[in-house]
Amino acid sequence: MEQMKSGISPAVREPRTSGPVRIGVLGCGYWGPNLIRNFAKLRSCEILAVADLDPKRLEPVAWAYPKIKALNSPEALLDQDDIEAVVIVTPVSTHYELAKTALENDKHVLLEKPLAASVKQAEELVRLAEERGKILMVDHTFVYTGAVRKIRQLIETGEFGEIYYYDSVRVNLGLFQRESNVLWDLGPHDFSIMDYLIDEQPIGISAIGAKPVRRGDWAHESVVYVAIHFRSGLLAHFHLNWLSPVKVRRTLIGGSKKMVVYDHLDPDNQLKVFDKGVEVSLGEDLSKVLVQYRTGDMWAPKVDQTEALEIVCKHFIDCVQTGEKPITHGQVGLQIVRLLEAAQESMARHGEVIEL
Amino acid sequence: MEQMKSGISPAVREPRTSGPVRIGVLGCGYWGPNLIRNFAKLRSCEILAVADLDPKRLEPVAWAYPKIKALNSPEALLDQDDIEAVVIVTPVSTHYELAKTALENDKHVLLEKPLAASVKQAEELVRLAEERGKILMVDHTFVYTGAVRKIRQLIETGEFGEIYYYDSVRVNLGLFQRESNVLWDLGPHDFSIMDYLIDEQPIGISAIGAKPVRRGDWAHESVVYVAIHFRSGLLAHFHLNWLSPVKVRRTLIGGSKKMVVYDHLDPDNQLKVFDKGVEVSLGEDLSKVLVQYRTGDMWAPKVDQTEALEIVCKHFIDCVQTGEKPITHGQVGLQIVRLLEAAQESMARHGEVIEL
Amino acid sequence: MEQMKSGISPAVREPRTSGPVRIGVLGCGYWGPNLIRNFAKLRSCEILAVADLDPKRLEPVAWAYPKIKALNSPEALLDQDDIEAVVIVTPVSTHYELAKTALENDKHVLLEKPLAASVKQAEELVRLAEERGKILMVDHTFVYTGAVRKIRQLIETGEFGEIYYYDSVRVNLGLFQRESNVLWDLGPHDFSIMDYLIDEQPIGISAIGAKPVRRGDWAHESVVYVAIHFRSGLLAHFHLNWLSPVKVRRTLIGGSKKMVVYDHLDPDNQLKVFDKGVEVSLGEDLSKVLVQYRTGDMWAPKVDQTEALEIVCKHFIDCVQTGEKPITHGQVGLQIVRLLEAAQESMARHGEVIEL
Amino acid sequence: MEQMKSGISPAVREPRTSGPVRIGVLGCGYWGPNLIRNFAKLRSCEILAVADLDPKRLEPVAWAYPKIKALNSPEALLDQDDIEAVVIVTPVSTHYELAKTALENDKHVLLEKPLAASVKQAEELVRLAEERGKILMVDHTFVYTGAVRKIRQLIETGEFGEIYYYDSVRVNLGLFQRESNVLWDLGPHDFSIMDYLIDEQPIGISAIGAKPVRRGDWAHESVVYVAIHFRSGLLAHFHLNWLSPVKVRRTLIGGSKKMVVYDHLDPDNQLKVFDKGVEVSLGEDLSKVLVQYRTGDMWAPKVDQTEALEIVCKHFIDCVQTGEKPITHGQVGLQIVRLLEAAQESMARHGEVIEL
Lengths: 356, 356, 356, 356
What we know:
4 copies of one chain form a homotetramer.
Chain A: E1 21-26, H1 32-41, E2 45-51, H2 55-64, E3 69-71, H3 74-78, E4 85-88, H4 92-104, E5 108-112, H5 119-132, E6 136-139, H6 146-156, E7 163-173, H7 182-197, E8 202-210, E9 214-215, E10 218-219, E11 223-230, E12 235-241, E13 243-255, E14 259-263, E15 271-282, E16 289-300, H8 308-322, H9 330-348, E17 354-355
Parallel strand pairs in A: 1-2, 1-4, 2-3, 4-5, 5-6, 7-12
Antiparallel strand pairs in A: 7-13, 8-11, 8-17, 9-10, 11-12, 13-14, 14-15, 15-16
């Protein structure tokens, strides 16, 4: 992961000595099978057990991977001493309890995003992981895509100059979730990408949401706009929408030297770097402002197409083996939950800026 | 203009009797020549004079249209008695004075957008036009495009169902303006489209802006996000940006029955109507919410490709001749200025919602 | 498969009585695993064995599907009496021998495209299958896509009017094959789509090819253009290319009433139906020809997104069970090989038209 | 024009001495006004007269350019002694007679493409121009676009390596022409681009056409495919179509080092240069061929957006003034007519290769 964000923290504990890492997976719904498939390909780990409350969900796993034990309760899995690390792919509301038990049972933990349902829970998990010397990692998948890693590299080399603005759009039709809203569903993706790319700490956040789809008492935000403010004046903005007829996943980053368009859905050119910019100068009598435009070539760097989830799984196992701190470690997961919680609060206050 | 918004107001005054309408054009910079070209094609009017303070700008007009008188001062034009109507294509800061004089000299007025630099000025012009019984029209060009007129038609037939949200993006590189910001430059386009399409009156507006490009004391917003709130809960959102490496002019309108994507830059399919939607129902035990998706055909209706400015010019002359109230009459222009002024105020207050 | 081409032939033999169809798969290279994955999902069949000469290729299958017997020789599989049907996913040069043995051993056969390496071989297989009363089917996958089936439906309803021309482009970078050229690699896809869509029989074929990439004695066509002529005057044209930097898979079908663009790579609108056309009339003095254009709406019908290979596998098993003739039965496969062989001959004769 | 093809021929005659070049324009139909508009902007020339048989077509010119004399017969214009150069924008069938008279009257000539209706006529004009020492230039507009000039530059630097193939598609709906077919209408564009870009001389040409739209005796090719063969093995292919529901103007050029996609309709990235390629090597035992792919970055060089017609007009006047040979001089125009005539002959012979 040499292309990843610099400043990797020192090892959190003594490295493991030998043999494949023995893991268990909690949750076998929509996303779980993807993680199982990727961990199953790694020679550096071995999936001992998978648990889900719903036996039907375990069936295809049991069929495809007869060597993996299928359990009907998470507790049974978490009690298993030979499991060193657990992967939690359950609804957010259960993250805290499951991860807490796992850490208390001295297991390393990889959680599906977001880390937890509240800042308080997230803080507690981070504290516990540090106390126990265990790896705590969040599956912020997009951080591990070739495109996002490439942007990070370009930012680090100073290629873009000063970052002028950051604009992110992630819209599509569905999938509505009963217990969540579009902010908590899609927000972690874009907040974690931004957190990975922008070195500065945000100082405030504001958000506006709409709940056009409702039935009885049920109404969750399905259209949300979030603005994140930085001390330097940098403004990051996010459009999250479950009600768009078209799928858009596009981030614009405007820099003083270069500008980039990251379109996750463009198979050929996920990343386009534009040699475009604006220069402002003052005229002689100071009353005049002159603006000059630069429009040069466009360059679409080749982007590593390795499935990000494969890298996530490998990175987690590597960290367990070496004791290295993951790129998207607990503190990072906590920061994303902070942004989510504050954005939710801002929505309740009609878009008031919440200080961070 | 039968496809236009219904509820055309009654004639503001007695219709003219005969002959081509004699007009004068104030301002010959970037946009002026486009208006001159379009008025010159109409047999129902005759351009008597064009005025600009900068003689260089008049040269090409004088060369191409030798019959049109080229004047170096707006006053000279406004004083000319045989001119019945003036077209004002000058910087916003001059709109009020020029339009006021024109109306006081009993001339009909077509103004480039926005109507004026403040609500106060705009109100004054509307009042004056009514008092004098003169046509006051703003060139909100996009309202006259085939695509926008078609959307209006579809909304009127109830094709879209309840409007869930309105999302508009208008971004590109430049053109920076010394005395303006991106809100006042691009906002009038999208606010006027929304005003034309959405029948409900907005109740609040909030906006956030960034001024990354600055030099000395000079700094204007070049990235702006605006949210407009309606009593029904409808949320309209606008992204205006002078610093984007790519040009995007796209509006999403999500309805309960249909959703539309209006992409002004797609030459073949400016309008796409999607038979897509979401339905939410409650489960038997009321604790469960069931969501169903509908994804059907897409339909790209043929859109009238007549140049919108041609329609604008013809509509103005028609209104002068018949006394009919223009689609984008003074009150409409005033409403757009209200939105601009309130959005500007909200930016100064860090995104606070300004009541309308 | 009710949406498929009408005129399904009568059953070729008595239907099977009961139980899942027991199948064997020959070949586990690039495409084999996709067929195994799809057959493995069907409850109406059971994969008893898989054979490949290369033991390394069998490893992942053995790991993922421990119940399937992994064999190192096709003979061992073909000799197995309890196997009723075999799926042949090996290089074309081996198709004839393997399919012949399978049919002689009274097994139903599904072959990867193309059916065989020559017309002679293909004819022999068709004859043999008829003689033995066995199902012989070719995996012309694209015929089973939702988009192609939808086009067929639209043609059958007369929606397009008279077909004016058929233009197909399938270009991308690679995959070069040592023993094949781009005609035999990509041609079967497009020829089989055309064969399925166009009811008329072709009367001639001509082709031109280039072999820019060569090394030593090795040189195969990597850029090929094929024209297929019909008695009615209809012209079908194909561009097949292994050396294109961009991937294009687009078919235009121009009809007198409607025109369709089928873009396999457009995830949202694979099919676009245009209400566009041309009408020619003679002027009064007969010396003048008047041309009128019709440009109306565009309509993108919803297309069934089921993976085509899933339908192929299910259709094969259904045919084995019911005795029904497959859509892409042996005669169809033979016709495609006829086109390939004739096109190859035309290339050798510098594009001379070969009668069919 | 320093970016243009190297090897400019020596001056054809003594340069003119002074003053703006006095020109006349023959033909004021669809394309004529565009040429008039561009010549009118040049200070180095002066349009003295325009002639058209149809007085209605002269009206708008007379109105817009009152200083230009409007004539009802070409002869009147060609007889005018003070006109040094004529621009012929009339139907192809009239090119020969008009250009011949002009050259015989010692005028320089710029002709709309194609140069003439037959090789014989074209040869005669080239001969005459040389005899009289006059400039003879054809308006092969696309040769003067920024994109085509940029490709030429890249080819000259060897950036692409060996040219593997050339594939050109120019399809759209209409405009049908009574006296022409799609080959003679669109072919000159693509043949002239290829002629400008590829240094090698073609040795053969073959073509296939369809005439699906017909009425009474009237039937012209509206779908045509042309292949041009070079001694090196290079194959150039052209798809010309008046019956496509979508507009495509795309050229692929595959080189051994780089590949380029030139999409005339992509406003942002007309030119995309791909660092993609294929390398073939022989295995140790010579029986194996190994193929390796290279897929690197994509680069979209900035392209000069000056209107090509503006460059055409300026280049013609420059050549008249300096005596320099135009880029698209008579011999070039003759070569294009040769290709057209041979392609037409090949169509009549069912695609037989015509030697050049």
